[in-house]
Each structure stands twice: as C-alpha cells, then as structure tokens.
Amino acid sequence: MANRTWVSKFILVGFSGLADLQLLLFVLFALLYAVTLVGNALIVTVVGADRRLHTPMYFFLGALSISETCYTFAILLPMLGGLVGASRTMSRAGCAVQMYVFIGLACNNCFLLAGMGYDRYLAICHPLRYPVLMSRLVCAWLVAMALLSGLLISMGQTLFIFSLPFCGPNTIHHFFCDLLPVIRLSCTDTSLHEAVTFALSLLVIALPFGLIVLSYLYILGTILRIPSVAGWRKAFSTCASHLTVVVLHFGCASAMYLRPAMDDDSERDQLIAVSYTVVTPLLNPVVYTLRNREVQMALRRVLGRNVGP
C-alpha cells in the first residue's frame, strides 16, 4: 500500500479515437448546445412573461428547462473544450464536483417529470379540486423537494464513490466523470459500489417512471369515460408533449444504468451518454415548442410585443 501512487488527476479520453473528426464533432455539439440553451431560455422567458402560462404545468416545465440548462452546462462545456485541444485532464475534486452536479440534476429531472405526471393526473381526474390540490405553494414545494432529494442522493453517491482508493490507471474512457467509468478505475474490489449504484439508479429511474405510468393509467380511465371525441383529443393533447419527453428521458437513462454491470463497452456507453446528455435536453424544448399549441401561441405573443411598434 505504501508503494502505491495515489491518483490526483484523471484524463478524460472522450472522442480522442476519432482524431480526424474532432473539429466536426465540436461544431456539431456546439450547435446542439446553442440550440438547447436558446430553446430552454425561450421556454423560461415565455412562461415567465405570459400570464396565460402561469399554471402548474408550465411552472414545472420552466423548472425542468432551468435544470437541463445547468445539466448540459456541467457536461458539455468541458467536452467542447477537449474537442478543440484544451486539456482533457481533470482534478479529482473537479471530477467529483462534475459527478455531483450531473447526478443531482439528473435525479431532479426524473422527479420533476414525475411531478408533471402528477399534475396532469390531478388536472384531468380531479378538475374541480385541481386549483386547491395543485396550488402555487404545492408546486413550489414539489419543485423544491425534487431538487433537494436529487442533491442529497447525489451527495451520498458521490462521497461513496470517491471514498474508493484510486491508485492505478487514471484514464476515464468517457467524455465526462460518469459513475461506472470512474468506479472501475479503483484499485480495490468495487462490487459493492457497483451494486449500490445499480440499486440507486433503479430507485431514481423506476420509482418516478412507475408513478408516471400509474398517473396515466388513471388518466386513461378518466378519458375513456368522456363521451365526446373532441374531449378525448383535448385531454390527450395536454399529455402528448410530457409523454414524449418521458419516453425519451427514461428510455435513455434505463439503457445506460439499468443493465448488467459486466456489460462494459466504452464506445457504446459514450454513444448512449450523448443521447441523454445532448439529445434529450435538446428535444425537451423542441417537443414543447413544436407540439404544444399553448407555448407556440404564447411565443408569438411575447415576440410580437418585443418587435412591435
């Protein structure tokens, strides 16, 4: 033990295997990052500026947009720097901070999506009591609890992972400090840490997703009792955007974290990671601006006010 060299820095390999495509990847990811920032900024601005969107559903959407903006900032900026020749080295403390932010906001996003599903359940299944059951205070409490729960889970998991001894290889075959790639660099048995990581991933992904599925089962039962086709369409239209984002978000997260621990393929893992760190945050504002009529109309009203005489 005394002769071991303790790792104080990590090297993020990222996409270094695609040396000839570094500039192309930088331009592509920079454009996607810019679209994500602009899209989420538009949602937050429109939700804040248009009084017709001052409802619980759009309050959750604004919180999700802010969370995903911070989430992509923590992951994509270092990756973009590495693509244009900046140092791919990250200190142990820096790696821990990035992991803490990533886990905390990823958990927060899962819980926010569950809160949005609960909101749709109350709005459709209990419309008369909806203003009381989903008041501003309740909305604020749910958003605060989602963030606090995510940060507490992240703190425990990050401290647990970085309590491992790192005394051998320091090369992370990934473009950010993800959980399993860091755990596997430890010079001791990591079976317990991998099992705990899987259990927490199962809890954070399966529990909110299960609550969303349960909410939509009740919603479906209520919708089927509506006598008119127009009523069906109106009810489904309020849920379509949320369901699309849920499928994308939980599908990508499950593909990465709810699979056998021995199934290790760094190139495939990076491809899946791109889907939930780049593509999913991008599709959230795209889905809500292209598929949601209320957001489209509010966007026109806000832009019309700003460019009008």
UniProtKB/TrEMBL annotation:
Domain G-protein coupled receptors family 1 profile: 39-288
Entry superkingdom: Eukaryota
Coiled-coil zones: none
GO CC terms, sorted: plasma membrane
Compartments in which it is found: Cell membrane
Keyword Transmembrane helix in record: yes
InterPro entries named among the record's database cross-references: GPCR_Rhodpsn (IPR000276), GPCR_Rhodpsn_7TM (IPR017452), Olfact_rcpt (IPR000725)
Single GO molecular function: olfactory receptor activity
Alphabetically ordered keywords of this record: Cell membrane, Membrane, Olfaction, Sensory transduction, Transducer, Transmembrane, Transmembrane helix
Membrane topology: Multi-pass membrane protein
TM stretches of this protein: 23-46, 58-77, 97-118, 138-162, 198-223, 235-258, 270-290
Protein name, as recorded: Olfactory receptor 10R2-like
Organism placement in taxonomy: Eukaryota, Metazoa, Chordata, Craniata, Vertebrata
